[in-house]
Amino acid sequence: MSTIAFIGLGIMGSPMAVHLQKHGHAVRGHNRSPAKARALQEAGGTACASAADAVSGADVICLMLPDSPDVEEVLLGEGAVLDHAEPGALVIDFSTIRPDVTRRLASAARERGLRMLDAPVSGGQAGAEAATLSIMVGGESADVEAADDVLGVLGGTVVHVGPPGAGQTVKAANQLIVAGHLQVLAEAVVLLETSGVDLARALDVLAGGLAASAVLMQKRDNLLEHRFDPGFRVELHDKDLGIVVETARSGGVVAPMAGLLAALMSSMVANGDGGLDHSALLRGVERLNGQTPPRPDTA
Ligand code: NAP
User: Fold this and answer.
1) 243 in contact with ligand 1, CB cutoff 6 A
2) Which position among 36, 171, 219, 239 bears the catalytic label?
3) Residues 201-248 pLDDT 10s
4) Domain end among 147, 163, 179
5) Residue 294: its pLDDT value, please?
6) Confidence class for position 298, pLDDT limits 50, 70, 90
7) How far apart are CA 299 and CA 176, in angstroms?
8) Does 32 contact ligand 1 (Cβ within 6 A)?
9) Which of 9, 65, 278 to mutate to test the pocket of ligand 1 (most atoms within 8 A of CB)?
10) Domain range holding 49?
11) 198 and 93, same domain (yes or no)
12) pLDDT by residue (tens digit) across 37-70?
């Protein structure tokens, strides 16, 4: 069993850190707002006042932070984790960030004698809580094998997809697919409701055919009840579609739907819905239809 530093104890990071602690690892957690370390402490883990403190004595350093600048700041900024980590420590970044930033950070880690994997996840809050995440891993094979005791605890599906950055590229593809799915689901819901069809019954039968999906299964109640407490915040999905568009552009890939979805998601942020769950794309479709979306019940 390892000593694990876990930095970023938000919606995803907190349940992941708790699972690792409950599986016998000693977890030293740090979060910018300290109150979020409470669940880890209740599970027997340690709350640390800084990232540098958390990594002291840690064999493995896990990150679950919002965006590329956050990961860069924690690894290389003031109190840099890469400068305070124990020699040979393995950094596992579960955050969804830009593949090019990941590649740069992996080389910075290597230059300091450390190892780094990108291991972004899919499965949402439900997957983090049930430890059934799908984890797309980029990095060296030996390092992926060394991470087995950690990744196996958190994931139902763990796949090594290629060299550093490859995990983030697969995650970008995942976010494109999920956004497209949510958008067409939202359009179908408005079509059904406007046509006077019983929405619950319609979704039941759709879920039994080719239109069935994990997205429909997980977001069904949000759509039916206009309940958009996150979950996965629109502003994070907006960030991810930015990554998709930039990655496609820099790779010379034409992906027209990606551009359209990025614009629709950005419009959600511009309309003040950035803090809602991404299933609130339904509100965007309602706005496009001249409807005033009901106030979301975020209780
Ligand atoms: P979140 O709830 O905002 O959690 C991020 C946490 O990081 C927050 O608690 C934040 O603290 C902390 N943090 C930010 N900067 C920090 C710093 N410099 N030092 C220490 N802690 C810091 O976000 P999340 O939903 O867990 O998402 C985390 C990552 O997972 C994102 O990259 C997201 O795209 C990805 N992801 C999310 C989901 C999902 O369903 N939520 C699913 C798959 C992947 P504060 O409380 O102070 O802000």
Assistant:
1) no
2) 171
3) 999 999 999 999 999 999 999 999 999 999 999 999 999 999 999 999
4) 163
5) 78
6) low
7) 28
8) yes
9) 65
10) 3-163
11) no
12) 999 999 999 999 999 999 999 999 999 999 999 9
Check if 167 has its Cβ closer than 6 Å to any atom of ligand 1. no
Tell the residue number behind the tokens 């958009």, with chain if given: 228
Looking at residue 1, what is its pLDDT? 85
Number of domains observed in the structure of the chain: 2
Is 171 among the catalytic positions? yes
Claim to verify: residue 15 and residue 153 sit in the same structural domain: yes
Q: How many whole angstroms from 65 Cα to the centroid of ligand 1?
A: 4
Instruction: Give the closest residue (by CA) to ligand 1 atom 44.
Output: 121
Report the predicted TM-score, pTM, of the whole model to 2 decimal places: 0.95
Calculate how far, in angstroms, residue 190's C-alpha sits from the geometric centre of ligand 1. Answer: 31
Residues 126 and 89 reside in one and the same domain = yes
- Give the closest residue (by CA) to ligand 1 atom 4: 10
87 and 41 inside one domain: yes
Which among 7, 9, 31 is the best mutation to test ligand 1's pocket, defined by most ligand atoms within 8 Å of the CB? 31
CATH number at residue 266: 1.10.1040.10
Index of the ligand 1 atom closest to the CA of residue 14: 26
Is the beta carbon of 136 within 6 A of some atom in ligand 1?
no
Read off the CATH number of the domain in which 30 is found: 3.40.50.720
> Does 156 lie in the same domain as 116?
yes
Task: Convert the pLDDT of each residue in 246-255 to its tens digit.
Answer: 999 999 999 9
| Distance in Å, CA 96 to ligand 1 centroid | 10
